[in-house]
Amino acid sequence: MSAANPVDPAPLGPGLLVLVVGPSGAGKDTLIAYARGHLKGREDIRFARRRITRPADATENHIALDEDAFAREMALGSFPLHWRANGLGYALGAEVAEDVAAGRIVVANGSRAAVPAARARFARVKVVHVTAPLDVLAERIAARGRESGEAVRARLAREPALDAPPDLTIVNDGPAEVAGEKLAAYLRGL
User: Is 23 one of the annotated binding-site residues?
Assistant: First the structure.
């Protein structure tokens, strides 16, 4: 599931990690992209690019790693936070630790299952839960073209619970600009 970096257990701070979590298809990447575009010029806010053991594609801006490279980086302690979900490895890179150590706010697409490890690894964590009705989630997942039918249903059946109520919940079932502005406004207020 999730794990903090075992090499350096000291909590990272004084900055803030904002984990944007929620089910597949909720629109986390879309809302993060909206906020990034509307918070240009804010040097105190950074947006993380995850490392994922999946080839890069047009649906997500991530750094692709194969399983061997992911395991190597994990063993070296390069990831301040990493987890497994949906058969893939996910991680935040060393630049996240550097930005948080410099006192910045770092916004990252995360996993609900990784929240406890994030709270153990970072001195300050805020959780934004993005969600949508089940039919909207299924339609969005199918539209990506990575999965269909039973795979979509299986993905939606995996719903890890949060360890505590989120700091903000956004129901993303309308225009992306509306939900995106909720995230951007929240980040402006931090």
Answer: yes
